[in-house]
Description:
Binding site for substrate: 70-71, 92, 186
CATH class: Alpha Beta
Pfam families: AA_kinase (PF00696)
Bound molecules: adenosine-5'-diphosphate, ligand 2
Strand order of the largest sheet: 5-8-2-1-11-15-16-14
Number of domains: 1
GO molecular function: acetylglutamate kinase activity
Enzyme class: transferase
CATH topology: Carbamate kinase
Pathway: Amino-acid biosynthesis; L-arginine biosynthesis; N(2)-acetyl-L-ornithine from L-glutamate: step 2/4
Oligomer: single chain
Amino acid sequence: MVKKHEMQKYLDKAEVLIEALPYIQRFNRKIIVVKYGGSAMVDDELKEQVIKDVTLLKLVGFKPIIVHGGGKEISRWVGKVGMEPKFINGLRVTDDDTMELVEMVLGKVNKNLVQLVESLGVRAIGVSGKDGGLLKVQKKLADGEDIGYVGEVTEVNSEILNDLLEKDFLPIVCPIGMDDEFNTYNINADDAACVIAKAMGAEKLAFLTDIEGVYKDPEDPETLISELHVREAKELMSSGFIGGGMLPKLNNCIEAIESGVSRVHILDGRIPHCLLLEFFTNRGIGTAILDDENTKFYKGE
Ligand SMILES: Nc1ncnc2c1ncn2[C@@H]1O[C@H](COP(=O)(O)OP(=O)(O)O)[C@@H](O)[C@H]1O
Ligand SMILES: CC(=O)N[C@@H](CCC(=O)OP(=O)(O)O)C(=O)O
């Protein structure tokens, strides 16, 4: 029996569940792409919380697909073997040796995520973009410069992911692909998440990262932007205040919105259960990227 003085606690829990109801209805059977990267990946406790959130999304009837990164872990291993990690415009310069390391590290990250999801009682399948020709690529240049085995996705074989979802698996995608000659390429995980969200007709694309969201000025935490229209995002990209890994991320947000993904969000993966907070409460967190025509408030619709 619930004691009288404990009743409020239980009522509060009931309130939280009721608040989630419209969101559960809205995203029921909808495809949600979660790009998982940044430091939320290197902290074991946070990692477990993120994976628990995604499995919960699956169990309440959404169709999540995880696309993971692992850039920090790759750089750690690149350093371990005595090489220096190098990036241009947020993309890793990838020579033969680096490519080998990237594939080894991302393969390990992929299976570790599969293991975590399986341990929570949800069936997961880890695939690399090589499997079944999931991600076909061509060489990607950075400002016209050749940066090695870095791929730009030219084709997504969405049939594989649709089949996995159909059979109720949670697909976990590793951002590696092959070109027409079957050479292996390293794909920025934000790029991979964006093309997959587009090809799968995802309702929502959420980028989990290691910062609160997009800042107008990254030196000033007061300038966090909670709602960013595509037009403003493009202006911001040319302002010089967007740098490093935020460049491909914001570019992909714009690309996803312009290709019809309804909801695109950058979330702080360091906040425990940020995905649940974003999906199931009235309070938006992080930065929502919005269509220019969307004049309504993101969470107030
Ligand atoms: N204007 C900006 N607002 C937010 N982050 C920015 C901005 N400019 C550069 N960044 C950097 O982008 C990083 C996020 O990109 P990245 O490290 O590639 O994340 P992930 O590994 O999650 O893909 C932040 O940690 C921050 O250092
Ligand atoms: C071409 C390129 O830059 N590939 C990325 C792939 C991993 C990644 O994107 O990881 P995060 O999302 O955790 O940064 C890299 O080698 O770091």
